[in-house]
Design goal:
Blueprint: H1 29-32, E1 40-44, H2 49-60, E2 64-69, H3 72-80, E3 88-93, H4 99-113, E4 118-121, H5 137-164, E5 170-174, H6 196-217, E6 222-228, H7 235-240, H8 255-266, E7 276-279
Parallel strand pairs: 1-2, 1-4, 2-3, 4-5, 5-6, 6-7
Helix pairs in contact: 2-8, 4-5, 5-6
Length: 286
């Protein structure tokens, strides 16, 4: 038997075997999240079901999470539930419909941690008023101020921080399946859509506009819209279940499913951007 361990073939076949191909499977999410360890993430609406789940997963991955919310009690409840985790969770009081609140919050984060590396625009509301209902002006404005204007102002401040520090950050817009289609009302029943789908359709458009602006500014930042269907405990399920009993029997995602979608989007290779991700529970018929 020859010295190189082959089966005694000719000299031509005694050349070293080619190197084994490198595995094509990507590293798992835990390994890919290491790039975000110690980085600062802002999560709006962190007192809600989806925002809370996202904040928890980012903290577990070692991020410094600044939860922007009007509800300290709920964020504090999340914080004390986190044991032996690599990151930290901070509560920052902020009403995202108030520009001074937003500027103060981002200023505090800059003074405390140096700036923002990731923004999760999760805060949103839904009202029960019809578009044609009398005395609905305040509800109409409230929806647009929260779901569109607040999101845009937070994005502005986050991009300002990222660009000033030359950070290749990431902006996540928690959108909705209603940002892509309007739910069909059952004939004879009160429609439940109102201004909400319009505000979420706007988020779909805004995400693309932000992407184009980030390219123009040469920031290297990514932006992703994540559009879930019905989610257990989220504002859409909670606000429609009382008026439409069928919602109680519809399949739903868990808040943690949306959080995992966020982790997937923020751990893609540098040359890959998940622009739009729609996730539905199995069997959904919206």
């Amino acid at each position: 038997m020859s010295a190189n361990g082959n089966n005694g073939g000719s000299a031509e076949s005694s050349e070293a075997a080619p190197a084994a191909p490198q595995p094509s499977v990507r590293l798992d999410i835990a390994d890919r999240m290491k790039r975000w360890h110690g980085k600062v993430a802002v999560v709006t609406g962190a007192s809600g079901a989806i925002g809370g789940a996202i904040a928890v997963e980012l903290v577990k991955a070692g991020m410094i999470v600044c939860a922007l919310s009007r509800r300290r009690d709920k964020v504090e409840k999340l914080r004390v539930s986190l044991f032996d985790v690599a990151g930290t969770l901070n509560y920052v009081e902020c009403d995202i419909t108030v520009e001074d609140d937003i500027k103060y919050a981002f200023g505090w984060i800059e003074n405390t941690y140096g700036g923002v590396d990731m923004l999760v625009n999760n805060a949103g509301i839904i009202t029960k008023c019809l578009l044609t209902e009398k005395n609905n002006t305040r509800d109409l404005y409230k929806t647009m101020e929260t779901n569109i204007i607040g999101l845009s102002m937070c994005t502005r401040e986050a991009v300002k921080s990222m660009k000033a520090r030359d950070v290749k950050g990431h902006i996540i817009n928690v959108n909705s399946i209603f940002g892509h289609k309007v739910h069909q009302a059952v004939p004879g029943t009160r429609p439940l859509n109102g201004m909400y789908p319009a505000s979420k359709y706007a988020v779909t458009a805004i995400t693309e506009c932000i992407r184009q602006e980030l390219v123009y500014l040469g920031t290297g930042c990514k932006v992703t819209s994540i559009s879930p269907g019905l989610v257990e405990g989220d504002i859409l399920s909670a606000n429609t279940s009382k008026d439409n009993e069928i919602v109680n029997y519809m399949p739903k995602l868990k808040p943690e499913d949306v959080a995992e979608a966020v982790l997937y989007a923020i751990t893609t290779p540098e040359n890959v951007q998940i622009h739009e991700l729609i996730i539905k529970p199995m069997g959904e018929f919206l």
